[in-house]
Write a structure and sequence with these properties.
The protein is globular and about 65 Å long. The N and C termini lie far apart (57 Å). The protein is α/β, with parallel strands linked by helices and 388 residues long. The strands form 2 sheets. An 8-stranded mixed sheet has the order 3-2-1-4-7-6-8-5, with helices on both faces. Strands 9-10-11 form a 3-stranded antiparallel sheet. The protein has 13 helices and 11 strands.
């Protein structure tokens, strides 16, 4: 049997120490994250006392089959005065028929369709928002993505925080709601079991300086002070930049303890991967150091790499089992905290989801192009985009 030299033995020991440190770090991260999510879920938003009139801006593009139910939930708000402006860029957009049906079904709701193809930058969603803003009647503005579904207390919960004049922008986290397909389940797992813990951990480490796109609310004068939507018309992460610009005004960006539902459409696995790669390259561009550090929170993939390079080290094998167990238990903790059901038969997807997320994260460092609504875009280091 060949004998290892002293140098080889020391190298092996150093390697084991490095990987052991990484997997211990990941374990500590997840334990803290689970506790934090549970604490966050127990908080309640402050109800609005003044109930200012609100304009909800809904930029739309197509119909994923969930649009009617998503918008119908918004129409059922328990709030005294609000209007909903839905914007598309063309009369033949599939969303137009959905809006026309909603207008008939909710005659008591001030719901309007705006068709306008004016373009102010590369980000067509921002152009849509700028076009909607020209028709807004109220000073309190809310931006809500097309794929979110909310409760009847949604507007009241978000608008209440803006009554503090030191707060310039309000935002919400969102939880994934899966459909029937594997891709939808994996997409919801990414949101619920990686994005939410990571987002909350970020708010505890440093003051919140950005917003999350599912919901953004601000006053009209605040938006005008940062240059309006035109200021982010060429940025991929318009939500992130809006929050950052508001923070630069000396105003606070606040995360209200209200979760909206992000309904994940059933799609192909390749479409899911491209969608998550766009997110990953956005995060990596805007926060490269913290995103790189997040690679070490993927305890299962890191343990598997350790197991492979150590040629089956028993310690590495124990690390793999420990992290799989921790993530499976954590999935139940998160489900209870976030108020959604998980299917026991999907437990095998936990390591699959972690490995997939790790691969997507690594791939985000290997290029600067993304696909968004069938368009290929090049992302500059400052977050601006142009056609590739």
């Amino acid at each position: 049997m060949p004998r290892l030299s002293l140098g080889e033995s020391e190298k092996g020991g150093d390697m084991d120490l490095i990987f052991l440190s990484a997997v211990v770090f990941a374990a500590v991260y997840w334990v803290v994250a689970y506790v934090g999510v549970a604490r966050y879920a127990r908080r309640r938003p402050r109800p609005s006392r003044e109930s200012p009139p609100v304009t909800v801006l809904k930029p739309l593009c197509g119909d994923d089959g969930q649009l009617y139910d998503n918008l119908a939930a918004l129409c059922r708000q328990d709030y005294p005065t609000f209007e909903i402006l839905c914007g598309v860029r063309a009369h033949d957009d599939a969303a137009v028929m959905v809006i026309e049906r909603l207008v008939r079904d909710f005659p008591g709701v001030e719901l309007r369709l705006i068709v306008d193809d004016r373009t102010i930058g590369t980000n067509l969603k921002v152009s849509n928002l700028a076009n909607l803003l020209r028709h807004a009647k109220h000073e309190t503005l809310m931006i809500a993505d097309a794929d979110i579904r909310v409760g009847a207390d949604y507007i009241a919960a978000v608008a209440g925080a803006l009554e503090d004049r030191h707060i310039g922008m309000v935002t919400c986290l969102y939880r994934g709601v899966a459909g029937s397909q594997l891709s939808s389940t994996l997409g919801a797992m990414y949101i619920n079991e990686w994005f939410i813990p990571a987002a909350l951990m970020g708010t505890w480490i440093e003051e919140l300086r950005h917003a999350f796109g599912a919901t953004i609310a601000c006053r009209r004068d605040t938006l005008e002070a940062i240059g309006g939507f035109e200021a982010v018309a060429d940025h991929l992460a318009d939500d992130y930049m809006l929050g950052r610009m508001v923070h630069r005004l000396g105003l606070r960006v606040v995360l209200v303890p209200y979760l909206v539902d992000n309904v994940i459409p059933d799609t192909s696995l390749s479409a899911l991967a491209l969608h998550e790669l766009r997110w990953a390259r956005t995060f990596r561009t805007l926060r490269p150091l913290s995103y790189f550090c997040s690679l070490f929170t993927f305890g299962i993939p890191v343990s598997l790499i350790w197991l492979a390079v150590s040629l089956g080290s028993p310690l590495a094998g124990m690390a793999v089992l420990a992290h799989v167990g921790l993530r499976c238990v954590g999935r139940l903790v998160l489900a209870r905290a976030l108020g959604h059901d998980v299917r026991g038969r999907d437990v095998w997807l936990v390591p699959v989801r972690d490995v997939l997320s790790f691969v997507v994260a690594l791939a985000s460092f290997l290029g600067r192009t993304v696909r968004w609504n069938d368009a290929e875009l090049y992302v500059h280091p400052d977050g601006r985009v142009e056609s590739a």
